[in-house]
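Appendix B, example 12.
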Amino acid sequence: MKRSSIVLIVLILLTLGLAACGGGGDEPTAVPSPVDTATPVVVKETVVVEVTKEVQSTVVVEKEVPVEIIKLPEVNPLEVTGDVIAAGSSTVFPLAERMAERFVAEGYSGNITIDSIGSGAGFERFCTAGESDISDASRPIKDSEVENCAAIGRTPIEFRIGTDALAVVVNPANEFLAGGVTLEELAKIFSNEATTWADVNPAWPAEEIKRFSPGTDSGTFDYFIEAVMDPVYGDAAEDS
């Protein structure tokens, strides 16, 4: 049986976030700002490479990320007026949908629109076009995006809603990766340097690597670049 050469990045992310603001027109009038902040804490995050169901190899361990805890006041759905528009991460989308369902069930009478367009596209709609009230994201907001928000009179409020993991998996028929891969090998697999598996490791077959990953607007893509490609290729990671 021919061994498979398919590699797949599962669309699961490491950091889930929401950004909201009070600027723009036709926005809900009862959406408040944070009332308090706590001392920043450090969350240790791990990237896991799952080779088969039986074998797992950790390639990036305990990446310390400062997280500022923000306390948000309660909002009475019955008192909120106007429609709510959210757009951004496909990974946050199911949670955003559930939150919207709960908000309506508790008395909100307006319309809630949630678009799954990727973190980057969500921030563009939120900070550049000013067309959304909430930006769902799988990564922190960038300084350039904060500047875009300021240019249209918006001050984004960023808060974390959860932590998940980014998994890299291969077809179960792929036997030569059963022992796992190193961080360097993983980066090379997703770089322009490698066309076949043998380009990564001479012990592997000279079969074409077929890669599947989120698009460049995805926060999952951004995190993979930061956690896997940057440590190996540095500033050249985007070109790799």
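The first strand starts at residue 6 and ends at 9. The chain has six helices and twelve strands.
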